[in-house]
Each structure stands twice: as structure tokens, then as C-alpha cells.
Specification:
Number of strands: 5
Helix content: 55-70%
Structural class: alpha/beta
Distance between the termini: 18 Å
Oligomer: single chain
Largest sheet: 5 strands, parallel
Order of helices and strands: EHEHEHEHEHHHHHHH
Amino acid sequence: MGNASIKVLIGDNSVTNGIKAATILKENGMIVCTRKMEGNTIYESIIKEQPDVVITALTMQDTDAIILIKRVKEQLINVPAFIVISNIKNSFIERQVLDSGANYFLSEPIEFNELASIVKSVYRKPGFNSSADTEIMVTDIIQKMGVPAHIKGYHYLRTAIISTINNRELMESITKQLYPSVAQKYSTTSSRVERAIRHAIEIAWNRGNNEVIGNFFGYSINSCHGRPTNSEFIALITDKIRLKQKYAK
């Protein structure tokens, strides 16, 4: 399904963020409109226009994103995907936002070149392609595990998992193939990718959702098992998603 069918509502009409984001998304073929950063204005636009994806700030003059999402859920059956932007880098706040029903927590400053990819990853419509489906599942899993979306390791880990799902051979050569491919996408080095992914896993393991991680790894974080290596972590999530996709067909 092409990007032209993705309708995005941005709750920000400022030149620095809202208009700039709208321009980027329109260049990627999406239908985009901007609104004032006011909760009631955004809410009324969502109800009236029923966009596929809503991009909104965490805090607005008259409300916040958590209350806005709750109001929309009470009113609509087909709830749009929400991307919530915050200038506060805080894992507790991020968890609250995601638990409220947001699909993605994005910390400022915004990486505008990543925005179109993020919108496509949260886009949910019947008949969307398997690539978008994979991105949604990977994003959902690592966010629920507790990997903070504002750190570089989050993006590197997400890309690494998606890459190995699409090409299983990459798991056989993580150092020589997988890390370099991720590094090339983000204009960095393989060693930085490796360290950032390890850091992201450490954060999830030490401060993430114990129940979610336990369900995936089959044992408690507090047991005698140590933290999984990068390759073990990536391989497990890759296998879980591949099996889910296999039996969903």
C-alpha cells in the first residue's frame, strides 16, 4: 500500500517543527494537515477527519497527550496511531505515554529524516504490506521491553532486528555484516553500533518491563541467567517474530 493513502494529522503548526515535519511527510507522498498545538483543536480534527496517524506534543496548553488519547479512544472505534513528541527524556514518562496507547515516543530534537519511516512503522490499515507489519511488531516489542526510544541504541537495535528478519543470513555474521549494514544506514561505525545496542539491552534488562522480558526469554531477570548478548537478544526476537508471521499466514 503506497504512502499516498497515509493520512497524517500534526498537532503543531509552527514553522520550526510542524510545518517542517509536514513538508517532509508530503515529500514522501503522504496526506498531511497541521493544527494548532491545542488539545481541543486537535481532538476535534481527529474526530472530524479521522487520520491514520496523529503526531502530537506530550504537553499542550489545555491538556496532554495521555488525556487526548483517552478521549479519542472513548469516541472512535478506529483509533489512529499516535506518535507523541516530548522535550523531556525520561523513561518513566515514556512508559506512561506508551501504556496510555501511544504507538511511539519521540524525543526532541526531532530527526526529521527518520520521521517518514516512523510514521510508516506505526501505520495500521487492513492490507498493509508485510514490511510495515514487521516494523510495527519490532517497534512494539522493544518499546514494551523498556528500551528508551530516545537513545541511539534503540534505533540501531530496531534496524538490526528488522534486517535479520528480512535476511536470516545476517545472524551468522553479526560483526562482519549486520553491524556494518546498520552503521552505514546511520553514518556511524560498527563498533559504535555494537556498543549502543549493548547499552540499550542493558537498560531494558535493568530497568525495563520484567514481565515482558521474562515472557520472551523464558526465565526471570532476577534468576541466575545473565543478561543476553547482543546476538542472543536479536536472534530471539527475530525468531519469535518469524514464527508469528509464519503461523499468521
